[in-house]
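User: Please look over both lines:
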Amino acid sequence: MRGYVPGCEVKVPVTLAEALDVLAAEPGGWRPMAGGTDLMVLFNAGRMPAGRFLDLSRIEELRGIWEDETTLRFGALTTFSEMRDCPSVHRHLPNLVKSARATGALAIQNRGTLGGNIANASPAADTPPSLLAYGAELELVSLRGRRTVAYDAFHQGYKQMDLAVDELVAGIRVPKPQGLGFHFYRKVGTRQAQAISKLCLAAYARIEGGLIAEFRVGLGSLAPAPVRARRAEAMILGKPLTALQVTAAREALMADICPIDDIRSTVHYRRVVTANVFQQMLEELAHA
């Protein structure tokens, strides 16, 4: 059964204020939509009933990439192609470039958005592990005002977010890595392109005086939501590059994940390959 298009109602606001007015007037009554690259697949397959969609694609206030001395800010409607083609993102946040390249085909990259990838809340999305590794923050907005949420506190379970029904993700702020940095991104899927991940691991480390001064690992497809590998991080943070506790960190990583058997992979495969990718990352870090 396919989605029934005539049964849908769509509003297309052209300003952020107009969109927020609609959400506030009928809380929960409208489903925000950006590029639609995930929602329309579900709708076309008949897995999402006809409903009321708030098309955000014409709101210029949600577009653009801005840079200052310490931060890169992405409007929620920033596309994967825009991230992939931005010199500042290449220079400071190479994991995000790799995430964008790993997302679907060029047509999807041209239309899909960073904000949509976040708010769709798929545990298998390609950009969240990189955002977690870089310590990103989200700007959430409603008629009640604006607030900032650390991205690693935003996802609270499968499709559960710290996002009220009258709020939108307006922007994503990512601090620029400082000093000597190490960046790692690996997506494992059935194919090199156009495949939903079996697992995804992104890591960032800052090295000072031969010590790991900052270390974060983001994981995808390994829990009900994108997660940080906090136990594994604790085994590496503060350690000298010459004495990384690889075996202990691998074991700690297993407590950070709770993969499932599904159509794309098995628990056993995900655990074994995640541990191997994590060890590969640590070996590269030791030689950074």
Summary: The mean pLDDT is 94. The chain has three domains: 5-55, 60-175, 182-286.
